[in-house]
C-alpha cells in the first residue's frame, strides 16, 4: 500500500537524549582510530540502550526527522566510504542510459538513502521509490519526503510472492529483520511497483531477506533490467531462513553476469568468486576473525548488456570526491 504522508511521527525525544545523540554523531570521526573506536563505541552502546523518541538533525545537508539512536548519521561520519558504492552505481547507470534514473530503495528506513542520493548525485536521479514495511520507520519517512514529489513511499513488506512473511524485529535502532514469531502481510516487488514507469537501480537492504525480495522481482528484472545492489549478510539470512545463494541464483537466471562486491564499510572487495568460495566466505563472516563485528557485504549485480563500466565501479574510491 502507499504510505500516508500526513501521518504523525513518534513522540519527540527527551531533550537530553536528543543532545547526546547529536554530540555522539559529531564525535563519530574519532572512532576512525583504534583507541577512539573503543571509547566512542562504549558511549554509543550505553546511549542507545535507553534512547527513545525522534528528533531533527541535518543529514546530507537537509533537516531530517530521525529516531534517536539511528546509527546511519554516525556511520557516514565514521566511514566516509559508507554507501558510496551506491552513489557510484547510480552515476554509472545514468551514464550508461544517458538520462536520470529511477531508483528503488527496499528497506528504506527513515529515508537516509534518499537523502544521500539527493545530496551526492541528485542530477542523476529522476525519482525514488522507498519501500518500507516497519510502521514507525514508514511514518518518519513519510514526514521526511513530504516536500519532494519525486520520492514515493510504498508502506509494505516485499516478499518472494508469499502473502505473508515473519513480522519485523528490530536488529538495532536503524533497521529491522523479518524474524518474528507472527506473520505480516506482504507482496512481491513486482506488484508493489507495478505503477513505476522506469526502474533502473534497485537497492535492497532487508537484513537477511534480500534473496527473497529478489525472487519477488522477476518481472522487474526481465522488463526493466535494473542494476541491483543487495546486502549479503550470512548471519541475518540464517536468522530469516533465506538461502544465501538465492539472490545469485535468481539474478543468474535473469541474465545477470557481473557481481561486484563491497564490504560493509563501502570498500571494493572483489569480483564474484562462485558458490564454493561464497560458502567459505559465509562461514568466515559467521565465525571468523573479521575486520569488524557484524561483517557483511553489498553486492552489485549487473546484466550482461548493462553498459555500466564495471572496472570504473570497482575503482570508484580512487575517483571519489569528498562529501
Description:
The chain is an alpha/beta fold. It folds into 2 domains: 15-77, no CATH class; 80-319, Rossmann fold (3-Layer(aba) Sandwich), CATH 3.40.50.150. Helix content is 38%, strand content 26%. The strands form 4 sheets. It has an 8-stranded mixed sheet, sandwiched between helices. It has a two-stranded antiparallel sheet with strand order 1-2. It has a two-stranded parallel ribbon with strand order 6-9. Strand 7 (164-172) and strand 8 (175-185) form a beta hairpin. Helix 1 (15-27) packs antiparallel against helix 2 (34-48) and helix 1 (15-27) runs parallel beside helix 3 (72-78). The radius of gyration is 19 Å and the shape is globular. The chain starts with 14 loop residues before the first helix and ends with a helix.
Tally of helical runs: 14
Structural class comes to: alpha/beta
Low-confidence region ranges: 1-7
Strand content: 25-35%
Biggest pleated-sheet summary: 8 strands, mixed
For the record, the CATH architecture of the largest domain stands as 3-Layer(aba) Sandwich
Strand order, sheet with most strands: 5-4-3-10-11-14-12-13
Helix content: 25-40%
Mean pLDDT, rounded to whole units? 93
Indicate the overall shape: globular
In whole angstroms, how far apart are the ends?
Answer: 34 Å
Question: How big is the Rg?
Answer: 19 Å
> How many individual domains?
2
CATH class of the largest domain: Alpha Beta
Amino acid at each position: 500500500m502507499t504510505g500516508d504522508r500526513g501521518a504523525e511521527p513518534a513522540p519527540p525525544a527527551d531533550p537530553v537524549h536528543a543532545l547526546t545523540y547529536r554530540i555522539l554523531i559529531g564525535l563519530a570521526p574519532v572512532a576512525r582510530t583504534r583507541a577512539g573506536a573503543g571509547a566512542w563505541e562504549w558511549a554509543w552502546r550505553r546511549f542507545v540502550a535507553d534512547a527513545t523518541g525522534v528528533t531533527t538533525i541535518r543529514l546530507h545537508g537537509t533537516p531530517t526527522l530521525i529516531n534517536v539512536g539511528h546509527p546511519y548519521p554516525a556511520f557516514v561520519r565514521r566511514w566516509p566510504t559508507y554507501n558510496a558504492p551506491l552513489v557510484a552505481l547510480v552515476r554509472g547507470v545514468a551514464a550508461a542510459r544517458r538520462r536520470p534514473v529511477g531508483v528503488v530503495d527496499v528497506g528504506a528506513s527513515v529515508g537516509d538513502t534518499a537523502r544521500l542520493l539527493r545530496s551526492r548525485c541528485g542530477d542523476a536521479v529522476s525519482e525514488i521509490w522507498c519501500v518500507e514495511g516497519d510502521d514507525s520507520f514508514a511514518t518518519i519517512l513519510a514526514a521526511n519526503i513530504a516536500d519532494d514529489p519525486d520520492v514515493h513511499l510504498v508502506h509494505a513488506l516485499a516478499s518472494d510472492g508469499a502473502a505473508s512473511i515473519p513480522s519485523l524485529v528490530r536488529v538495532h535502532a536503524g533497521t529491522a529483520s523479518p524474524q518474528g514469531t507472527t506473520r505480516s502481510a506482504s507482496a512481491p516487488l513486482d506488484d508493489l511497483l507495478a505503477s513505476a514507469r522506469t526502474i533502473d537501480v534497485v537497492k535492497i537492504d532487508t537484513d537477511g531477506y534480500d534473496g527473497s525480495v529478489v525472487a519477488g522481482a522477476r518481472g522487474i528484472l526481465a522488463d526493466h533490467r535494473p542494476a541491483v545492489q543487495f546486502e549479503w549478510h550470512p548471519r541475518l539470512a540464517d536468522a530469516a531462513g533465506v538461502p544465501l545463494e538465492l539472490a545469485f541464483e535468481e539474478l543468474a537466471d535473469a541474465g545477470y553476469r557481473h557481481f561486484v562486491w563491497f564490504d560493509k564499510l563501502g570498500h571494493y572487495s572483489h569480483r564474484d568468486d562462485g558458490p564454493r568460495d561464497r560458502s567459505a566466505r559465509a562461514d568466515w563472516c559467521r565465525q571468523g576473525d573479521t575486520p569488524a563485528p557484524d561483517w557483511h557485504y553489498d553486492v552489485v549485480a549487473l546484466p550482461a548488456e548493462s553498459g555500466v563500466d564495471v572496472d570504473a565501479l570497482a575503482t570508484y574510491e580512487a575517483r571519489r570526491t569528498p562529501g
